[in-house]
Specification:
3 helices, mainly beta, 455 residues, 23-stranded parallel sheet, eleven-stranded parallel sheet
Amino acid sequence: MIRKHRHTTPATIALWAMIVGAIVLAGLLARMTLAAGATCVVNGGGGADYTTIQAAVDDTNCTRIAISPGVYREHVVINRNVTVQGSEARTTIVDGGRTNSVFVLGYQSPNPTTVNLSNLTIQNGGVGIFNSGTLTLTNSIVTNNSAGGIGNTGTTTISNTTIVSNTAMSEFGGGSGAGVANTGTLTIDHSEIISNTVFGNGAGLYSTSGSLLLTNSSVRGNTSSGDGGGMFISGQIDRHIAISNTTISGNGAIGGGGLYLQTTSGSPYEMTMTNVTISGNSAVEGAGILKGRNPSNAYFTLTIVNATIANNTITTGNSAGGITNSCCGTTFIQNTILSNNSNANCSNSGTLSSYGFNVDSGSTCGFTAAGDQSNTDPKLGLLHDNGGPTQTHALLDHSPAIDAVNTTQCPLTDQRGVARPADGDGNGTFICDVGAYELSATYRTFLSLLVRSES
């Protein structure tokens, strides 16, 4: 049998040329995409662009690095702009092996660096993250680092992140700031700083000569062998310090179980606290807030608005469990509850002034301005999840703090984000409440059930 040979037509040749060209073009485009700086994938098990994070960081074509789930035992140094994103914090773990820092950002870099880290657990380092550039940290866990969770000398923004169970022997690896140590510009939002331990000052957060904005967050269960169990804040001129919608609870220290506050070298500065709950902290001196012993504090002004400061305990000594305004300086208090703090709600050696509408369960704060109530039980519920991102003390039925504030002199919302003013007593008139919590009609039935369960 004779086999007939088929002749390749021009149309067939053209078709095959198109197919081969498309394959070649696809390969070229893939290589061009990597060269142009699209996402590079890291997978420690192989089958990706890189097996280590550092290798991807070293490739300047990678502007976004996606890390597959796994444990990466690395010390990562970043001196350029880049985004590093894990799959999910609990499954994408960068482990320092209990030796050096896990991430070092912008250190000795000739140019400013901007780094975004997200969806990571950063653990078992010296310092978990040391930043001297610009850092944004989101949706992450920083834990079990032996020289502090985060050290910042640049600009750091932290959100939706848990900083837990870190220790420190000193600042940035030596004695202060087990959770976070800051000398730059720091913003923390919707985050938790919990169960950190320091053999010095500022177990949860240590901020000196830096700016600080702390919002919608919890600082709890931190322990210091020095001052500032929850926070140690030392301000400086032209630096902004503000805390709002935050709970500081269950922290312990020698001085300032919740917060230790001071200024340095006679530098005048102001600090504001709005919609803040300070509860269940303990110390030898100044369990809730200790405004420090340094004469330089004459230049330090603290303003507290719509706070609840309750159930803080002095272990020994004669200072106040609530606010100890030691030595010098001025503290202004407005729309604030001070209740059931051991020894006294207030102790003052400087200037403690009321802007009105405060409730003191005793008489040690010396409140005499319009709307102030002394020797008055505010009838607080237990520290509890009452909605919002942080725990608060609810106002129980018939609390004298309900509808007790001039409506023109309170924040637009309470600590939980509930609108102020509300009709807390159900009489049809909307008036602000004293303290961090605003009772609204929608919570009245819930609170009645809560009171019954607590009893």
